[in-house]
UniProtKB/TrEMBL annotation:
Organism: Medioppia subpectinata
The protein's name in its UniProt record: Tetratricopeptide repeat protein 1
Gene3D superfamilies: Tetratricopeptide repeat domain
Annotated segments matching region Disordered: 1-33
SMART domains: TPR
Pfam families named in the record: TPR_8 (PF13181)
Residue stretches of biased makeup (Acidic residues): 9-18
Amino acid sequence: MSETMDNNGSDDDYEDTVDTPTHETKSGSDDEVIAVLSEEELNELRDKSLALKSEANDRFRDELYDESIELYTKALDTCPPEFGADRAVVHSNRSAAHLHCHRLDEALNDCNEAILLDDHYVKAILRRAQIYRQMGNKLDESLKDYERVLELDTSCAEAKTASNELRHEINERNERLKTEMMSKLKDLGNLVLRPFGLSTDNFKMSQNGETGGYSVNFQNN
């Protein structure tokens, strides 16, 4: 399995400006009802949120991940839901911080929130694919996200490599599960057939090369 690449970094590691998608994003929902604010008041809150995010990014770069998480959380608490793109970036950055602390569930939750706000957010989708793969039991979900990344960015080398590796891993897993299932079915079949002096060895299973289905034929030993 390939190691997680540089996408564990916060989304502002590469530039000081806000990583804002160019297309429209959905507004998030808060637990508390926010009173109607003027445009000036909304922008003031946004500026405070961006300042908190910038401070959080500094902590992230210094590898002070818990401190960065606290500041990202304050940034989200401050940022009005009208600024969905800003909120998506903060969720994605906080996800990166959680991932560095090996908190996969928290990292996944933040990625989900970021993608809900912006379903074209490549960095968040890529990071979620990495998280799913690290979880071990969500290989199919990981592959789906990597394939989505390639739909949005055909040049993403990590997604290409990971997709090929995951298809192989998923096929191996499915074959292993099929073998385990057949073994259990054979044990159950022997239990049922034993009173009749038969066993599963009296039955031959053949796979149809065209359909992939199986047929069972009785044979005397």
